[in-house]
Amino acid sequence: MPYEKSIQMQKLPGIGNIRTVNFTLSATDKPYALVGYNFNGLLSSYSTTGVVSPSTTPTWWSGFGKTNRSGDSYSHPYLICPDPNSACTFNGGGADVVSDPASCPYNDDDHTPNGYPNGTRSGFGSGVFDSAFIYGKGMNWAFADGHAKWRILGTLDPKTDPFSKYTGDGVPVDNAARKDTQCQVHIFRPDYQP
Length: 194
Fold this sequence. Notes:
This protein has one domain. The protein is built from no helices and nine strands. It has strands spanning 18-20, 34-35, 38-39, 58-61, 68-70, 78-80, 121-123, 138-143, 148-152. A four-stranded antiparallel beta sheet has the order 3-4-8-9, with no helix packed on it. The protein has a three-stranded mixed beta sheet with strand order 1-5-2, with no helix packed on it. The protein is globular and about 50 Å long.
């Protein structure tokens, strides 16, 4: 993870939409940070030298859309690692889960140790997405090679757009992330070459 001088860098500028958590602050607590970006969890504990296409592999993006979350956030997508005795690192060598990616579970969040190795599956948050059209018809992305740029969304281009269907105002329909046969959102995979 790159060095950040201030947690305020994680806030989406100009966005007033805030989701809060239900925690009670004591008089000595600091205010919650506002977080509008999410880390690509498939890169958790993954060697940066192992990323096949650093210029196209996202590290940070606005995984919840046009919102700043107050006091919480999580990696998006996130690795599923059911074995607590094994490392939790992306493993692209897992078996296919489905023959048709359209039949992947809506929100694959199965953490039960049912025979698949850690890191061969990932989850994608459910029901938490606001409009992906944050600035115009896109959002800011940061990539594994260190560059950042605004990227248009709603194009349905499988090489650059994680979603396969949107409403008119840019909300992904049913959080319809485009997945591969391992039920991973392929543009976030460190072994993906567009």
